[in-house]
Amino acid sequence: MTDQTKQYAVQKSDTEWKAELSPAEFHVLRQAGTERPFVGEYTDTKTVGVYRCRACDAELFRSETKFDSHCGWPSFFAPLAEDRVEYIEDHDLGMKRVEVRCANCGSHLGHVFEGEGYGTPTDLRYCINSISLTLTPADPA
């Protein structure tokens, strides 16, 4: 799934990834699979904190950018910083989409969609698989 010519900060073989990830995590993160809608751990979560890549623990999104898009997956209007994710043109399923990957390890996270109807500051919806993420709650003040 990942670009074999690109050098990521975190580089592992499929054997190493399979030893660290569950079969479902491996399918989504390393084989660009998609979890079913409305079943993910973070779809409806309102907890304040930072969402990290489940494969390499890189910080990707902040809860302040999460919104309810009613699409069945956690949605964000921006990554924590632009250098945290990378974008790959995706023509699978007969449609043009933009895949979102972790820039640190190349793991598949989901897709980003553009549209004024989202009502977000960026007009973007990062539709991310819950299984691609781990939420680190903010320390209570």
Structure write-up:
With 141 residues, the chain is mostly beta strands. It has a single domain, classed as Metal Binding Protein, Guanine Nucleotide Exchange Factor, Chain A. Helix content is 11%, strand content 30%. It contains 2 helices and 9 strands, in the order H-H-E-E-E-E-E-E-E-E-E. It has helices at 14-20, 23-31, and strands at residues 49-53, 59-62, 66-67, 75-76, 85-90, 97-102, 108-114, 124-128, 133-137. The strands form 2 sheets. It has a 6-stranded antiparallel sheet. The chain has a 3-stranded antiparallel sheet with strand order 2-1-9, with no helix packed on it. A hairpin with a 5-residue loop joins strand 6 and strand 7 (108-114). The radius of gyration is 14 Å and the shape is globular. Residues 14-138 form the MsrB domain. It catalyses: L-methionyl-[protein] + [thioredoxin]-disulfide + H2O = L-methionyl-(R)-S-oxide-[protein] + [thioredoxin]-dithiol. Its EC number is 1.8.4.12.
Features:
141 residues, mainly beta, Metal Binding Protein, Guanine Nucleotide Exchange Factor, Chain A, 9 strands, Met_Sox_Rdtase_MsrB, Met_Sox_Rdtase_MsrB_dom, zinc, metal-binding, peptide-methionine (R)-S-oxide reductase
